[in-house]
Structure formats: structure tokens, C-alpha cells
Automatic annotation (TrEMBL), chain A:
Domain of life the protein comes from: Bacteria
Membrane-spanning ranges: none
Keyword Zinc among UniProt keywords: no
Pfam families the record matches: SBP_bac_1 (PF01547)
Protein name stated in the entry: Carbohydrate ABC transporter substrate-binding protein (CUT1 family)
UniProtKB/TrEMBL annotation, chain B:
Superkingdom: Bacteria
Transmembrane segments: 16-37, 82-102, 114-136, 148-169, 190-215, 252-274
Any single GO CC term annotated in Swiss-Prot or TrEMBL for this entry: plasma membrane
Localisation per UniProt entry: Cell membrane
Protein name in the entry: Carbohydrate ABC transporter membrane protein 2 (CUT1 family)
GO biological process: transmembrane transport
Amino acid sequence: MSPTRRSRQVAAVLATALATALSACSSGDGGTAPAGGATGTQDAVDAALKAGGELTYWSWTPSAKAQVAAFQQEFPNVKVNYVNAGTGNDHYTKLQNAIKAGSGAPDVAQVEYQALPQFAMTGALVDLGQYGFQAFEDDYTPSTWNSVKVGGGLYGLPQDSGPMALFYNKQLFDQHGITVPKTWAEYVAAAEKLHAADPTKYITSDTGDAGFATSMIWQAGGKPFTTDGRNVRIDLQDAGVRKWTATWNQLVEKKLVSSIPGWSDAWYKALGDGTIATLVTGAWMPGVLESSVEDGAGKWAVAPMPTYDGGTPITAENGGGGQSVLKQSANPALAAGFVRWLNNGNGVKPFLESGGFPATKADLASPAFTDEASDYFGGQQINRTLTAAAGQVVPGWSYLPYQLYANSVFGDTVGKSYAEGKSLDTGLADWQKALADYGNQQGFTVTTG
Amino acid sequence: MATTTRSPLKPRKSPVLTAVMALYLLYTLVPLAWLLISATKTQSDLLSTSGLAFGGSFALLDNIAQTFTHDNGIFLRWLGNTLLYVVVGAGGATALATAAGYGLAKYRFRGRRAVFAVLLGAIAIPGTALAVPTFLMFSNLGLTNTPWAIIIPSLVSPFGLYLVWTYATEAVPDELLEAARIDGAGELRIFFTVTLRLLLPGVVTVALFAVVSTWNNYFLPLIMLSEPDWYPLTVGLNQWSAQASGVGAQPIYHLVITGSVITIVPLVVAFLLLQRFWQSGLTAGSVKQ
């Protein structure tokens, strides 16, 4: 899912807990390497669903309640205890603590793509390959399927996806005679034109958000994080990274982006009154705009994400995640059955009804979904743009096996560049150093480029 | 004849200091004013009007009603949890600190110095640093995700103990205790009939500290509890606030703000009621009579 409110304290604890978990794992006999692509059959899962039992499910997705209710109706002999243990980092902190303590973890938990490698590599998750779930590969977009695979193991099923697009305030653009940018150069030009015409307006707001930065690097073709077992390579100066900073530095250095922090009340306000003119973000954004930015109704529109050359449309993912089965589960086959129902069965429907953006190819291609006209977006068939984006994601991206920690220190390093209006490359170099130091402390062998 | 031109009780007024204090007062009051004014706005007014101006409608009562009914009335449950943690946790902490502080101040026994060293160490370590070890310990005991995980750590108040200790040293004369002993009173009777009364201002001060810290306790319950039914107000309100970010975000800032106002009311009441004791406690021992 998307960037969430950062809490230093939470991050600190997460780091401590993770440190111990990772080092405990590294001291083993190497048996933590994910079992390569085990494929079994789904018979055990079917039998477990038939036999019934009790499950605990941690999630903060708005659709979770409805999904659990629908699941229990379909399988009356399975009882699911739904717990909203926290959002984002709070959720992961608790999960990590429970894993470390050896008890108290749920059977099934929501895990975002950016957090999945961390939990998978510490051996906390069940490889769903043993139940034959590898067979579902063709049901999902390649980028989301790639995100739930770590080292050949399958550690969850994708629920939502966030292919990126450009959300813009059409009314404001029209008012100032700005055309929708197709390239990043045009985007920067639009930022200058808008701010010159009305100094209270900004092209977007960005105070330094790791989720956004990694997505932008992803689109630019950067591959700053590569992991091979316990070897990690970090290169935050590769061609893709520099391609992105060459564009974004112009906005940061000329103070053309607003410094309103994302997801704050001021941010919602700014999205409604035009202070923030565009958002380059995941396809899940329309639901947020519709439910929480009433003043923006009829003003906003969607266009493909700008590219560097204006040619073939390419994009990246921002946010999104799925559900995983925890090793602590007393009944992993039943838990796997719940995950299968959630993301490869009847659970997808309540998810779509709550405004979620799917990861399943069939739902993305269904005419009912793509042809839907959105009143909020002035009747635009926004899903045409968004589902097209789902097929244009640059392949081969991977997050760090300690991405949550990385995100938590982004503000301390790259955040400084944002605050001072200076080149992001300096901040990214600091980030790289912090990540290399931390990785080495955790028992990884980190090389930097 | 004395040549003093000014009585020390009538200090000269300094315009600079007055201005600084006025600024400081403003600085202190503006957030509170913002909170109170914001609590009267609807969610959409909150996002469309200026922070320190009233919105189009006066929605305070409606907001309060919504706060108590949102999500099946879980706010009331959180309020109840907080009260439970404060009454049992802070109450217990005060009782333990009082008894132990008095004991350390007035009895001579082996290891007193060691206790003093441990105590100073305990005051120096921030609670946050102990949170994860505490979590692991409670997890081994099978107490996480239960109210005990919040209450038991709250019972320990090194700073309160230290405060009572120093206060008892000053406020309880040894002669009085000896007189009571000569009159034949047992140690427990002395503690309950003589000492407690003398210690009252100190005890109230400690109680206030304990109540405020338990009431505002955030980090410990955050990591200990995963079941929203056991959350105190602080963690619960943060969960409401966190709903504003991410996929399917549903900001309910108006309820978070109204909930915050409701949350500070009992603390304000506690301070007003106990102010008398608090003040006499702060000045104790300042003048030698």
C-alpha cells in the first residue's frame, strides 16, 4: 500500500526487533534460504477448509471486514477472528515482535510488497508453493506476482496493485492553459508555468517519501537493490536513479514542489482547493479522492504517467500488497485456504466493491471494470488508463530485504536534501551509506556501486 | 532609616519580560484554541476553513455523538480501558512509591545505597528503550495482549519513589516517629495514621505524575496490544488518525480531534482538583521555620 505516517519510535523498535530476527537467522546453518519453488497440490487446502477451524487475520484494508463476513458465510465451520492491529509500520512492528517472541502472531496477515522480502527472508512466512499455489501465476499481473516471490519461494498471493498514473486537477490546468505533460521535461515546465501564474499553487507535494522515490526510480529503469541470498547490492547512483534525480532535482531545487506532508489534513485540503495540482501515484488513488476529497469532485482527471522520452508508455508500481500465511500458524493449510479465497476466489469481489484496484488479470480486463465511468472524474473512464498502466510496469524490480528500515531512515538522509532544496543525489548517497552500514550489521554482505 | 526603595515583594515590572511571557502564553494557548475550535467543525469544514476560524456550522455536539458511536462505540471502550489502566496502574504506582519511599527514607537497613543506585539508573533509562525487552518478557509469560501487560509495568514508578523518598526525609521528622513509638504505636499504625498525613502533598504530586504518564502512555500499549478492544485512548485515537493514509484511506480527522478534546478533559479536571495539594507540595521545606 502506500506511504504511511512515519513514526520514529515505531521505526526504532522495528529496527531493534528486526536486527535480532535477522541475526538469529544468519547464525543458522543457512537453512533459511527459501525452499526453491516447491509445488504440491491443493488437496490439503481443500481438506482443511472442509474440516474447518479457527483463524486469526490481521489487516487494515477497509474491505477486510466485509471479506471476513463473506468468507464465514461460505465456510460456516471456519471462524476468522479479524483484528485491525494497526496501520502500516504499527502493524509490522507488532508482527515482527510476535515473530521474534515466538507466539502471538496471526495465521494470516496483510503484507505489502515492499515489506514482504523482509518477512520472507527471516523465515516468518509459509511458502505457499507447497500447496500448489504456483499454478496461479497466470492469474496475476507479472509485476505483482514478482512481488510475492522471494528467492523462488511464493510467500503470499497479491491482493491489490498500484500501477502509477498522473492524477491532475483539470480545472486548474485549463484555467492556466497548461497541457497535460507527456514527458517529465513537460512536467517540469508545467510546474514552472503553474507556480509563476499563481505562487500559491504547486505541481505536487513531496517532502521526501521513500515509497514515491523508489517508484520513480523503478520507472526510470533504476535497479538500486539486488539481493542474492545474503548478498545485497545497493547502487543509488545507477543510471535510472540519476535519470530520476536529474528531473526531480529541478523541482526540488527551485522549490516547485509543495512541502505539505502527504496524508495530513492540510494535504487533503490542498488536494481539494487546487494548492496541489497533480499526484503521480498508484491506481488506488481514485478511491481515496472520491471518499476524502469532496471539494475535488469534477475537477480531477487521469492521464498516463509521464515518461522520459515521450515514447512507449512505461510506468511503475506504487504501493500494493497481499496476504501471507505465518509460520506460527497452527493450521497453515486452512490459512492458505483463506488466502486463496481472498485473492483468487470470491474474496476479490468485496475487495473491488470497496474501491480496491485488483492485481488479477481477469478483473483488470473485465469490461464492467474498464468501461466504468467515474462521476468524480467528470465521467472519464479512468480504469482504461489505469488498467493499461498495469501492463506497462517495468519488469525486474526488487526491494531491499530490509526495506521497512530503509524507508524509516529516508527522512533522515534524503529528507535533508528536500528540506534544504538541494540536489537529491547527496541525500541518496547518505541513504546508501546508512543502508549499507545497517545491512552489514544485520549479517548481510552489502556491496555498493 | 533604611534606604531601600523597593520591597522585594513588589518587583519592578519589566516590559520585555512581560512581552516574552505574553508570547509564551500565546504559544501555549494557540494549539489548545485550535483544538477546541476544530472540534466544533465537520470533517469537510475542517479541510476547507482556516484553522483558527469557526466553520460554517457548529458541529461539536454532533461530533461528540459521532465519536462515541463510531465503529460500534469503541471510543467508550477505550475510555474505559484508559480509566482502568490509570486507576489500577497509577493508583498502584503511587501506593508502592509511597510505601517504598518512606521506608527508604526512615529505616536503616543493608543495601540502601544499592537501592539508591538502581533507582537513579532506572530514572535515567527511558521507558521506550525498555519496551522491546519488556514485550519479550511478557510474551514469555503469556501476558501480551492482556490488560496486565499495561498495568504491571505502570506499577513501577522510579521517579515517584525518588520523589517520596526525598519528600519523606524532609517532611517526616524522626522525632515524631520516635514519639509515636514511645507511645506504643506499631510501625504500620505509624505509617497509616502519622506518616501518610504528613506525606499527603508529596503523594498527590506523585499521583499526578503517575496519572498523567499512564493516561498519556502510548508506546507500551502500542507494542503490547494487538486487539483494539484493549487499547487505551492514545493508541485508539492514533489508529483512527492512521486511517487517513494509504489505500482506501478514510480520514476521520473531526473524530480524532473531538476524541482528543474529550481525552484531555479528565486530565484538566484532575489538575484543577488537586492543584491545592500540588502547590503546597512544591513549597514544602523551602522556608526554615
